Fold this protein.
Amino acid sequence: MRKNYQKPTKIILGLLFAILLIYYLLKQISIKDIAVLFHNLNMQLLIVAFLFYVGSYFFRALRFKITLNTKLKLTKLFHVVSIHTVMNNLMPARLGELSYIYLAKKQGIKGTTAISSLIAARVFDLIVISLIFLVSVILIKKHSQMAGVIYLILLLLALLLLFLVISIILKHKVLRMLNYIARKLNIKRAKAIKYILIKLSEASKDLDRIKSKKILLLVFFSSIAVWICQFLTLYLIVISSGVRIGLLFLIVSITFSTLSTILPIYSPGGFGTIEGSWALGLVILGVSKEIAISTGFFQHIILIIFFAVLGFFSLAYFTFKK
């Protein structure tokens, strides 16, 4: 009975958190500040931003094709990425990641293979974000007094990356340890535990295949392409509103908002958490809170329109394919 209340409670708490955070942020500015950005919108720049956004989907699909080692057409994987992105943005606590595994299985891909490809994608995302963030911080330091929180974020990124890399390298030892714990707790024979351990073991074997130097390089460079497209998308969205913020400053802010998505307090749709973390990154670098908060809401609304358009198109594609 207790389990039945867990999900609704998390959703309600997430919604309450989002409402409170949005209320707090909007109290710091005037709604007119956001309206002005839409009034000044440069449609040509916005179209270019959308093209880069589509490009980020293309490279995500390409990366999955490489890690899955599948003959599945790139167009189908593109549509999988589109729907996966919608689910990831709408569901709290990254539960939308499960939609990728479901959609991959619908295309005839083993669930464990999908899990291993998703793990590889997230690890390389973190590696690339960390590298770009580090370079940006070094360059910004030349003309801006850095706050201690920036270095704290760098440290957290490094520790998280180290943890993930060690977990992958020592995955067989980690699996043995999990089996040992399950045996000691006398829960190894439980169907759910047994199923999870088997699937983790299968996913571990699929990860071994990704260790090829050629595959690692292809995944690394496709990940760089993903994030270059993503950063340029958000940069063009912001400057399309008439606001001029440096690309390096935006990279720091984008990193903050990206990291907010892995927090347990991440709200449904990221409402509040994305705007708050985006604004925090810019305010730390000396941007006024009015510009920081208003651009946070502006870019989030535009991104929602972008992924909703692509998600609707992909949903229609799979519907008519049936």
User: Anything to note?
Assistant: The chain has one domain: 32-321.
